[in-house]
Write a structure and sequence with these properties.
Structural class: alpha/beta
Number of domains: 2
Distance between the termini: 14 Å
Radius of gyration: 27 Å
Strand content: 15-25%
Number of helices: 13
CATH topology of the largest domain: FAD/NAD(P)-binding domain
CATH superfamily of the largest domain: FAD/NAD(P)-binding domain
CATH class of the largest domain: Alpha Beta
Helix content: 25-40%
Strand order of the largest sheet: 3-2-1-7-17
CATH architecture of the largest domain: 3-Layer(bba) Sandwich
Order of helices and strands: EHEHHEEEHHHEEEHEHHEHHHEEEEEEEH
Shape: elongated
Length: 431
């Protein structure tokens, strides 16, 4: 079995180790992905991203992995990921190259073969190679040929080269890192036109939230779009900023009760901290309401001629505002690029249970300093003409670290895919 594994996630490493153990002819395309796990360290236990298989290989190499008291991503990468990647590089093909295309070798998207499945044809992966790496490889492996290359020819190789390799099976274990639209429909009016310094997605939004939490930079109003695991992590990252009485945060979610699903599936520490933050903000608002009613009663007790000279007390607005059951449908920016204006809509068929007072208007616009888009992310686009559920092509969806038992769940998912791959190469000739 000739197998390609695509991705540099912790699960991609474990997949490569497992199939090496099974004796597969393996090529691991591990072009670097963003190490966003380091943002989630507090949600990970010390032995996260390790397995008995990996620890066994380290032992055979005369190495060991001694986890820190709490999970340290850089420690894990230095003492677990990199040594095992180097080991695989000596035993199998490990290519630090970006895959740009996954197709069948000859079959078109709608084409079939008589009396056979599409699995009969191999998969072709096209990947990009830095010409400097290619030249160095040729110089080391075939110096006589390299000497015959003219300097002009060597210098002409300034752009990435494309190469290909064919495989029986492809396992895509890349992390979902690509941004989705701020609208859950996939398209929001004006989204491509506003400043990307003010509109951030996914891990970039999380990095900005952490920066703002340490240095507010006069950012006083922020909108978070989404209420899943990414949003929970961003909200917790903004907790210090949010507790400043000058700050206000808007949460826009299609959920009737935002964060309800995360509170039931999230990692214990993250759930506890999020509940604590919600309770803090609710207590603050209820205290403001109590003070407001007291001042209102005092104002109402005044004589009419005194009332007209004193403004009526203003009803408080919570500093953590929920637009539940809503879509973000458009965004615009002032010409001075200081503020963003987000248009929100709520359909009749969707409930908005959290802060239902925000449901009354069909169309509303809020002004904010920054928008952090935290809808579900997607894998980076790869050119493909594969059919849906293509036999032999597997994609592994992975959990964020702040989901309960995330690593255990990912390993269980991979075991299921591993079982499906073995069935393709059973003696029963099922394909």
């Amino acid at each position: 079995m000739k197998l390609a594994i695509v991705g540099s996630s912790p699960l991609a490493l474990e997949a490569a180790l497992r199939f090496h153990l099974h004796g597969a002819a393996l090529t691991w395309f591990n072009a670097s992905e963003f190490d966003y796990e380091s943002f989630f360290e507090k949600s990970l236990n010390p032995l996260s991203y390790t397995t008995e298989t990996g620890l066994h290989f380290l032992k055979e190499m005369g190495l060991g992995y001694n986890p820190r008291e709490s999970f340290d991503f850089n420690w894990w990468k230095t003492n677990y990921f990199l040594p095992l990647s180097a080991f695989l590089g000596e035993q199998q093909k490990v290519r630090p190259h970006e895959v740009v295309s996954i197709t069948k070798r000859f079959l078109g998207q709608a084409e079939t073969i008589s009396n056979k499945t599409r699995f009969f044809d191999l998969f072709r992966l096209i990947f990009q190679v830095d010409p400097k790496e290619f030249i160095k490889e040729q110089e080391e492996s075939n110096p006589e040929t390299f000497e015959r290359l003219s300097q002009e020819m060597v210098e002409s190789l300034q752009t990435n080269l494309e190469m290909y390799e064919d495989f029986d099976v492809v396992v895509d274990v890349r992390k979902a890192m690509g941004p989705q639209s701020l609208s859950i429909t996939g398209r929001a009016l004006g989204e491509s036109r506003v400043s990307k310094d003010h509109l951030k997605y996914g891990h970039e939004a999380l990095a900005l939230a952490r920066s703002i939490n340490h240095d507010p930079q006069d950012i006083r109003e922020i909108a978070i779009v989404g209420s899943g695991e990414w949003s929970a992590e961003v909200l917790l990252s903004l907790s210090h900023w949010l507790k400043d009485e000058k700050s206000r945060l808007f949460v826009i979610s299609e959920e009737p009760w935002p964060f309800q699903q995360f509170l039931s599936t999230g990692e214990d520490h993250a759930v506890k901290e999020l509940k604590k933050l919600f309770a803090y903000m609710e207590d603050e608002f209820q205290n403001d309401v109590t003070i407001f009613h007291q001042k209102l009663r005092e104002w109402q007790s005044l004589d009419d001629y005194v009332q007209v000279k004193m403004p009526r007390p203003v009803e408080p607005i919570p500093r953590l505002v929920f637009f539940s059951g809503h879509n973000a449908t458009a965004v615009d920016q002032l010409i001075d690029k200081r503020r963003l204006f987000l248009t929100l809509e709520k359909p009749d068929f969707r409930e908005g249970l959290r802060h239902p007072e925000n449901n009354n208007l069909d169309l509303k616009t809020i002004g904010v300093d920054r928008i952090l888009v935290l809808n579900k992310l997607k894998r980076a686009a790869v050119s493909s003409t594969l059919v849906q559920n293509e036999i032999g092509h597997f994609e592994v969806d992975q959990h964020l670290p702040n989901i309960q038992d995330a690593w255990k769940r990912d390993l269980e998912t991979f075991k299921g895919i591993e079982h499906e791959i073995f069935k393709l190469f059973s003696p029963s000739d099922a394909h």
